[in-house]
Structures are given as C-alpha cells and as structure tokens.
Design brief:
The protein has helices at 5-26, 34-45, 51-58, 62-65, 81-102, 110-121, 127-134, 138-150, 172-176, 178-192, 198-220, and strands at 125-126, 154-158, 166-170. The protein is mainly α. Strands 1-3-2 form a 3-stranded antiparallel beta sheet. The two termini are 30 Å apart.
Length: 221
C-alpha cells in the first residue's frame, strides 16, 4: 500500500507535537501545551467569539473547552501549516470514524488502524520498528498488541537471528481485512482530494513527505 495523504498528515501531526513539546520543555514554557495552545492560537486570530465558534475552529468538544480558562487577547497571527495539519487530522478522524460506524466496522478504529496499515505494508517487524513507523510509544503499543493478539489479528514470533527480539506477523484474518480497509481508504481519498488533479495530489503528498522527513531528521539531531 502506497503512502497516502491521510497517513502522512497523521505522522506529521505526531512528530510535530513531540517536537513542539520538546521545544517548549527546553524553553521552560507551559502556556501552549496541548489543547490550550490551540485555543490561544484561535483567539489570537479572532477573539470575542462564542464557545461554540471556538469549538468549531480549534476542533475541541465544548465539554473539553469549559475546563480551559483563558483571557481573550487581540493579536494577529496568520494560519500556518502546523495548525492546518492538526485541523485536517481532527476532521479526517471524525469522518473516518463516521464511515466505519456506517459500515459497522470496528477493526480499524483509532491506533489499531494505523498498526494494521503499517503491518500490511510489511509485517515480521519488531515492536520498536512498529513504534517508529506508526508513531506510537512502545508502552502504548504493548496493550494494543495484546488486544489485537486476543482478537486473532497478529501473532508474535521469536526472531531466529536474535532471540531477544519478538517479531510481529499478521494472521490470515488480518490479511483478509485489507480489502475492506482499502475500500474505506479509497472513500476517504475521494473526500480528501475532491477537486484535485492527479498532479496536484502527487505534488501535495510529495510536500507532506518532505515535511515528515524534515521532522524525523530534526528529531534525530
């Protein structure tokens, strides 16, 4: 399966969040962490807005917003790529979940879908490699992999070359789900790229991939 816009946006969002948090930590700044940073960003562009409007613009539920007490301040800040990636990720996730719900599919929900996506490209990889490829912490992966193993989607095999390493393989049941996933993925692609030419799609995904590589290189430095 080729890399696509949705997967790249997810990867960029994860890498960007980690790097942003690292920079904030190094500068000893805590005002922009997590959702609070998104709320401030929206209000810097336009304050004096309702909570409902703020909820729509920053992609947070109203119930989540009520726990954030902020002073409304007037600044001017242009929209930037990081904010757009976050917004696209949030909207894409909601639409994806809605499509899955309508089709009564639960195997691809949340992080489990990303794990399957990576393993469909290449299984027989280590947990550490999977963690890097799908952008999930090993501690988070452990619980999810146990659940997927109980569901009969993956199996663990000890590496023949390194007995300390456990490799992850998809079962026949998991491989059989790929066609269903591809169908949903194609539907998502048609929503993502409505009105785009093939050339625009290729150029856009090339740019996303360059951003991903830039973030990965910075993380390694």
């Amino acid at each position: 399966m080729e890399m696509n816009g949705g997967f790249l946006v997810t990867k960029i969002k994860q890498l960007g969040d980690r790097i942003f948090e690292k920079i904030l930590s190094e500068k000893n700044i805590d005002a922009f962490n997590g959702a609070q940073g998104r709320i401030l960003y929206v209000l810097w562009q336009e304050d004096g807005i309702s909570i409902r409007s703020l909820s729509t613009k920053c992609g947070l539920a109203i119930t989540s917003l009520t726990t954030n007490k902020l002073l409304y301040r007037s600044f001017c800040m242009e929209m930037n790529g990081g904010f757009l990636v976050t917004k696209i990720k949030q909207l894409g996730d909601r639409i994806f979940e809605k499509i899955l719900s309508e089709k009564n599919i639960d195997a691809f929900n949340g992080a489990q879908g990303r794990i399957l996506y990576v393993l469909w490209q290449k299984d027989g990889i280590s947990i550490r490699s999977l963690s890097t490829k799908c952008g999930l912490a090993i501690t988070s992966l452990t619980t999810m992999l146990e659940r997927m193993e109980n569901q009969g989607l993956i199996s663990r095999v000890q590496s023949e070359t390194d007995k300390r390493k456990t490799l992850l393989f998809l079962t026949e049941k998991a491989h059989a789900l790929k066609g269903e996933y591809d169908s949903v993925s194609d539907e998502m692609g048609s929503i993502y790229y409505k009105g785009f030419s093939e050339e625009e799609i290729t150029r856009f995904e090339e740019c996303l991939d360059r951003i991903r590589k830039n973030l990965e290189e910075w993380q390694k430095s």
